[in-house]
Design brief:
mainly beta, 1 helix, 8 strands, 11% helix, disordered N terminus
Length: 173
């Protein structure tokens, strides 16, 4: 057997042996699960016809992570500073590291519409997209969250999109 053939055979044997005994490559998985948190949201848009909306609202946020799939059920409630709004979404989560993931959610916004001050996500029911990020603080149960909500056709009079940015801190459970 020549030197080239011997080297090739040795390389092939080493590759097969290494593949058989080496553990699988580690895949990043989010190291935390569900959480409930509080924060603030800032509305970046207003009704095109009336100029009302936007501003700052309190936010209660929650995430329930489905353990077998990279999918989460999320919800945010907007309180104070405008109409009450509830935004449930289903998100696809992509881990970036052991304590950070990004996600894209889709759902709807449901707004009380009780007064003349629209919420950060508008003043009527609308379809929403929600990109965001979650970060687990090492050696704790605290989670920082941040996201944006794009609510399509969210205003009764103006009919334009409502955009809101939220952030806060949650407690993992």
């Amino acid at each position: 057997m020549g030197h080239t053939a011997g080297a090739a055979l040795l390389a092939a044997a080493a590759t097969v042996t290494g593949a058989a005994i080496a553990p699988e490559a580690a895949q990043a998985q989010v190291a935390y699960g569900s959480y409930v948190g509080v924060g603030a949201g800032v509305g970046l848009t207003s009704d095109a016809a009336t100029g009302q909306g936007g501003g700052v609202q309190g936010v209660i946020s929650g995430r329930y992570r489905l353990l077998r799939y990279p999918v989460s059920l999320r919800a945010q409630a907007f309180l104070f500073g405008g109409d009450f709004a509830f935004v449930p979404t289903v998100s696809y989560d992509v881990p970036l590291s052991w304590n950070t993931d990004v996600y894209l959610g889709a759902g709807a916004s449901f707004v009380s519409g009780g007064n003349d001050n629209p919420s950060n996500v508008g003043d009527k029911t609308s379809f929403v997209l929600q990109p965001g990020i979650d970060y687990l603080f090492p050696n704790s149960n605290l989670v920082a969250f941040g996201n944006a909500i794009f609510a399509f056709d969210a205003y009764r009079q103006g009919g334009n999109m409502a955009i809101s940015v939220q952030g806060g801190v949650g407690l993992q459970f």
